[in-house]
Design goal:
Elements: H1 2-18, E1 28-38, H2 49-53, E2 57-58, E3 66-76, E4 81-102, E5 108-126, E6 135-158, E7 164-188, E8 192-201, E9 204-206, E10 215-217, E11 220-230
Antiparallel strand pairs: 1-3, 1-11, 2-4, 3-4, 4-5, 5-6, 6-7, 7-8, 8-11, 9-10
């Protein structure tokens, strides 16, 4: 459903912009509306906290999929290259319960798992058709700095104390760096642009001793619809 909607928006913008005056090399302020999907269970880093949690909690990694918004400043480096600096935001809360235990009153032992990420990316892109073309496919790579916060809040079972159930909240946060790769297509007019993009990020965070897993995999794919103002 999301992919069909993004495709429709891109086609409409393309029809409007391709008929406009061909673009010269310009700076662009891009706004993105997208969908972030974390790396799946089979590809996550070893001892990832979400994979470990799934051995005793009921939830799916795909439940951390969710919307992403962002902005990016693009500066041409001649006709066939451009540099970009941008930031985006995503946050997702997933509800879970213990799969093999219930409370003494028969109710579920539930938790909320929350992951927030604010990635900043510094990239260089290649535009094979050049900045002056109204249709501009591109690909690129760069460095990502991911500010993150992960929390587990709710009821917990203390397996070392007679399976006592208690309420608490555990939080970890930090900033990690890693590679970013991207590719997409942009339809550019003299004052506006629009397009679609796929972006991949990779980074791992270290968690403290309060969590079942020692790592948190921050990698994943973002599927963006982009709208830009050109100067």
């Amino acid at each position: 459903m999301l992919q069909r909607t993004l495709t429709t928006l891109v086609v409409v913008w393309a029809a409007m912009l391709v008929s406009a005056q061909p673009a010269r090399a310009q700076q662009t302020l891009n706004f993105t509306l997208g969908y972030f999907a974390p790396i799946g269970e089979d590809a996550r880093v070893g001892d990832d906290v979400l994979n470990v949690n799934r051995t005793f909690l009921v939830f799916d990694i795909e439940e951390f999929d969710g919307p992403s918004v962002g902005a990016e400043w693009l500066v041409p480096l001649g006709q066939f290259f451009e540099a970009g600096a941008g930031v985006s935001f995503s946050r997702r809360t997933v509800f879970s319960v213990y799969q093999d235990f219930i409370d003494s009153d028969g109710t579920e032992i539930d938790q909320e798992l929350r992951l927030r990420m604010v990635p900043s990316a510094f990239t260089v892109r290649v535009l094979p058709l050049g900045q002056s073309s109204p249709v501009q496919p591109y690909f690129g790579a760069g460095l990502g700095l991911i500010s993150w916060r992960y929390s587990e809040t709710g009821e917990f079972v203390d397996f070392g104390a007679g399976r006592e159930i208690f309420r608490d909240s555990f939080v970890a946060s930090g900033t990690e760096r890693g590679p970013v790769v991207l590719g997409g297509i942009r339809f550019a007019g003299s004052s506006a642009s629009a397009g679609g993009e796929i972006r991949y990020q990779k980074a791992n965070a270290d968690l403290g001793a309060d969590f079942a897993g020692s790592k948190l995999d921050l990698g994943g794919w973002t599927y963006n619809f982009t709208v830009g103002m050109r100067f």
